[in-house]
Design brief:
alpha+beta; elongated; five-stranded antiparallel sheet; 5 helices; 123 residues; single chain; Structural Genomics Hypothetical 15.5 Kd Protein In mrcA-pckA Intergenic Region, Chain A
């Protein structure tokens, strides 16, 4: 089965074209190598998927010609324990990280914006 079609059926991406563009961008690796969207997958292949800040490392278990419900999609792959632990660790880090704040204590007020635009016009 084609890589882009499997990623779509396994519900990693909403559309097949989106899956294909992510593969072309190099965000998907099969057995440690960059792949093309037309790469033929086999059972047992290791697929590394980088989505936003998370990396999923999964092993292909089955194939599906159609995109079914999420419960069926989860049967198509098995995520490695190391991948799960790493994603949980990163999620915890993001949760504990301080909320980004502006130096002046939040969003600029209307008055602050006017002052900034006056300064920019002078330059």
């Amino acid at each position: 089965m084609r890589l882009d079609k499997w990623l779509w059926a396994a519900r990693f991406f909403k559309t097949r074209s989106l899956a294909s563009s992510e593969v072309d961008a190099g965000h998907i690796e099969v057995n440690g190598e960059r792949a093309k969207p037309s790469k033929q997958l086999r059972e047992g292949d290791e697929v590394r998927i980088r989505l936003n800040q998370n990396t999923h490392v999964v092993h292909v278990r089955a194939f599906s010609e159609r995109r079914g419900p999420a419960s069926e999609a989860q049967l198509l792959y098995e995520e490695t324990d190391a991948s799960k632990r790493e994603r949980e660790r990163l999620a915890e880090q993001r949760r504990l990280a301080p909320t980004p704040a502006y130096e002046d204590g939040g969003r600029p007020t209307k008055r602050d914006r006017r002052d900034m635009s006056r300064i920019k016009r002078r330059d």
